[in-house]
Write a structure and sequence with these properties.
- The chain is of the alpha+beta class and about 180 residues long.
- It is about 45% helix and about 25% strand.
- Strands 1, 2, 3, 4, 5 and 6 form a 6-stranded antiparallel β-sheet that branches.
- About 20% of the residues are buried.
């Protein structure tokens, strides 16, 4: 009987909390478990990397942090710019051949947003050579981990991180991009 009372109390507390939130925002939020957030993160980073390798820059723009898209003049301009730049790279014999990500060690909540650092390794083909480097993607979710957007923060200076992402400055360690190196066979 005691367990039933506790269970009913928890259900009532949850229902009251949801109703208060619905009255305040007009929306009902459903909490997403940590494991689902990571599954969603993996889904989105994988889609972003596949789009990069396939030179599908419209899809890449979808997974790029809105601040970056805005700074590039919007999704259409970003897509056109990247298409042009990658065409130049291909004319020189350079192409993405592989990209891999490592799931983050921690996800932090700052206000209504979630942040984490996703280490990535990119391999590019340059003629018969394969060149690799590692970097750090800053992953951001503004909807509780349902979807994620990314920015290559490994190439950013500390001042740029502080300027563009002040909420997380000093709260996450963002390893810098490594120097490109040739892979040996």
């Amino acid at each position: 009987m005691k367990n039933v009372i506790i269970l009913l109390s928890l259900i009532l507390a949850f229902k009251t909390s949801v109703c208060q939130q619905q009255r305040a925002t007009g929306k009902v939020a459903v909490a997403i478990s940590d494991s689902v957030k990571i599954v969603n993160l993996n889904r989105d980073v994988t889609a972003m990397m596949k789009a990069t390798i396939a030179n599908d820059f419209a899809v890449l723009a979808k997974y790029t942090h809105p601040l970056v898209v805005q700074m590039m003049g919007g999704a259409d301009r970003m897509t056109a710019y990247l298409t042009n730049e990658f065409k130049k790279m291909q004319e020189q014999g350079v192409a993405f051949s592989d990209a891999q990500a490592v799931l983050p060690e921690k996800v932090i909540a700052v206000g209504t947003e979630l942040y984490c650092v996703v280490p990535q390794k990119v391999v590019m083909a340059y003629g018969s050579k394969r060149i690799t480097n590692t970097s750090s993607l800053l992953a951001v979710s503004n909807n509780g981990g349902s979807t994620w957007r990314f920015v290559d923060a490994g190439g950013m200076t500390d001042e740029q991180i502080k300027q563009y992402f002040p909420k997380i400055y000093g709260k996450l360690t963002i390893p810098k991009r490594s120097e490109a190196k040739e892979l040996t066979q």
